[in-house]
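Attaching the record inline, Q. Sequence:
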Amino acid sequence: MHNVHVDHRASLIKENMARVKHKILVMSNKGGVGKSTVAVNFAALLASRGYKTGLVDIDIHGPSVGRMTGVEGRPHETEGGLIEPLEAAPNLKLISMGTVMQAADAPVVWRGPMKLTALKQFLSDVRWGDLDMLVIDAPPGTGDEPLTICQLIPEMSGAVVVTTGQAVALLDSRKAINFLKAVGVPVLGVLENMTAFNCPHCAKEINLFKTGGGGRAASEMSVPFLGSVPFDPAMVDAGDEGRFYAVEKPEAPPSVALRAALDRVLEAVKK
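Structure, as predicted:
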């Protein structure tokens, strides 16, 4: 009976994902590099361009997408037991572990098998409908969640690896790239985040970390480099307040860089 249940879940996932044209994983092997900010703004930009977009946060222990998109409340469950994703904006639906928890600050103390069950439910029971794009925000690292998603989702379009210029972050980005190659997911490119910001007092550009490392890592690993995204404190504020920075401030340097990176991603997945 257990195998029948597993096969049923796998069948539902395959059926669900068949209605999604492109599935894009956003990941990093290190926390604190702005991965969720990139995922949220990618999804918002796609939706603003008219793509029917889904955003799923598979970070079971530290979900943040609900807060960063300004979406509150719990998703509706249909009579058939399916979950309706929440509407974050026109053309943008989302589901996150944070939206299905009883309390936003409740810790999730689960071992591997329970996490895998939750992920399978996300993929099999959420009624996405027809989507052009599904952006998947993975937790940092190459543990249960990213591995399960890569194994369960058929024909993953590819993954974006987010990093910063720190030496330790670049080392971890190489690990993430090797992980993706091992599980057979195309690497759409490396995006170096939070490269520099303009001082509000002297207008001088200040590098937060070493710069250029993302491009070097991409070159060394023979994968595309998607560019560098400058740091702007206003982007942090936008995420805290549930606003889409790249859509609200299209001319800001980080928004320009994110759009250019997304254009490269779209070019790659549509080949």
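The chain has a mean pLDDT of 86. The domain at 2-269 is CATH 3.40.50.300 (Rossmann fold).

More tomorrow.
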